[in-house]
Design goal:
Blueprint lengths: L1 E6 L6 E7 L2 E5 L1 E3 L12 H7 L4 E4 H6 L3 H6 L3 H5 L5 E4 L2 H6 L4 E4 L2 E5 L6 E4 L1 H11 L3 E3 L11 H24 L5 E6 L5 H12 L5 E4 L8 H11 L9 E3 L5 H10 L3 E3 L2 H7 L2 E4 L2 E4 L19 H5 L2 H9 L3 H27 L3 H12 L4
Parallel strand pairs: 4-14, 5-6, 6-10, 10-11, 11-12, 12-13, 13-14
Antiparallel strand pairs: 1-2, 2-3, 7-8, 8-9, 15-16
């Protein structure tokens, strides 16, 4: 169940609350990515301390390893990974996209080779629903497919036809299970506004509990990214959560929230942390830079995460340059705290009816540089 609890006159940004079987999620929300049942370099306790209310697992990866029988033995993913808050599971559609060359897609489903050992598997939209029921996720994503860029209209339409067929079959299977969970449809259509509108119209007829925008942040221009979002959001159901998949720079989040997006996920805060790139209120900081060798300041003087409260830039640079495992942990703690605190500030700004001013002030500081 989703409720909009606040809206604005000068923006389409909105405050909401998404209720699930494992608790509520305040929106706009950011979901840390736990691809294989773990957010890299984090424990469940550290995630809770950072303020995470929901995380994202991946059906494709969990199906391959550890496998459904292992997770069924723990009665689902929550108990297996010791996380008692909501979990959204992606369907594996993006993995189909990223493993192009090792996959075969048609109306029946997808046939692919495991990236682990090369074993061939076949999955139908119905099986992906069944797998997510076994995982016990609170929100399921339907199986979808989309072509890589640059993709022409004919190729995009062919892929869209398959995606819509899969969505109908997935929805039927989901409803047969008399679920206590939720299922989101995924709007595709590439960079063609009319195909995006066609996709949304088809999915609305299936009455999903939420709607996601897929197939962006895959190499398109900033102009195209914004154009597609701006064209779709006014037509998306106002009483259902809207999820922008895989997009997550602070600038992208602010733009999308301004248009009415409620949910986000992205690998940037965790991947960048492991690569030594940290997010701060004044922009990104590369800890490997020689200038931080003797810097006694925290990563971000205004940040209250455990890393910034205790450690200097000089020490964090030393850990990173020495390839210490603790560098990945401390950097990830900071980056996820930055993102989750950022979302909390967005929610507060909407509540106080000053989101536009907050957005402008944040971007002004963020562009100044560290």
């Amino acid at each position: 169940m989703f409720r909009v609890t606040g809206s604005l006159r000068d923006s389409s940004a909105r405050r909401g609350c998404l209720s699930t079987a494992h608790g509520t999620v305040d929106t706009p929300a950011f979901m840390p990515i736990a691809t294989a049942g773990s957010v890299k370099a984090m424990t469940p306790g550290l995630l809770e301390e950072a303020g995470a209310q929901i995380i994202l697992g991946n059906t494709y990866h969990l199906f391959l390893r550890p496998g459904l029988e292992v997770i069924r033995g723990f009665s689902g993913l929550h108990r297996f990974m010791s996380w008692d808050k909501p979990i959204l599971t992606d369907s594996g559609g993006f993995q189909i996209f990223s493993l192009q060359g090792n996959t075969r897609v048609d109306e029946s489903g997808v046939r692919f080779k495991s990236h682990i050992d090369g074993t061939t598997f076949s999955l139908t939209p119905e099986q992906v629903v069944d797998i997510q029921f076994a995982l016990g996720s609170d929100i399921q994503m339907v199986l979808d497919t989309f072509p890589g860029l640059p993709a022409g209209r004919e190729e995009t339409l062919r892929s869209l036809t398959i995606t819509h067929g899969w969505a109908g079959r997935a929805r039927a299977r989901f409803l047969e299970g008399k679920p206590r969970t939720q299922q989101f449809g995924i709007v595709q259509g590439g960079l063609f506004e009319d195909l995006r509108a066609q996709s949304l119209a088809a999915l609305k007829q299936l009455e999903f509990e939420g709607y996601a925008i897929g197939g962006l942040s895959v190499g398109e221009s900033r102009t195209d990214f914004r154009r597609i979002i701006a064209s779709l959001l006014p037509e998306m159901p106002p009483d259902r959560p809207r999820y922008l998949m895989g997009s997550g720079t602070p600038e992208e989040i602010l733009f999308a929230v301004d248009r009415g997006v409620d949910m986000f996920d992205c690998v940037l805060p965790t991947r960048n942390a492991r690569n030594g790139t940290l997010f701060t209120s004044r922009g990104k900081l590369s800890i490997k830079n020689e200038r931080y060798k003797r810097d006694e300041r925290p990563l971000d003087p205004g940040c209250r995460c455990a890393t910034c409260r205790r450690f200097s830039r000089a020490y964090l640079r030393h850990l990173y340059m020495s390839k210490e495992i603790s560098a990945a942990v401390l950097h990830t703690v900071h980056n996820l705290h930055f993102y989750l605190d950022f979302m909390g500030k967005i929610r507060y700004a909407i509540e106080q009816s000053n989101f536009t001013a907050f957005k402008e002030q944040f971007l002004s500081l963020y562009k100044q540089g560290v």
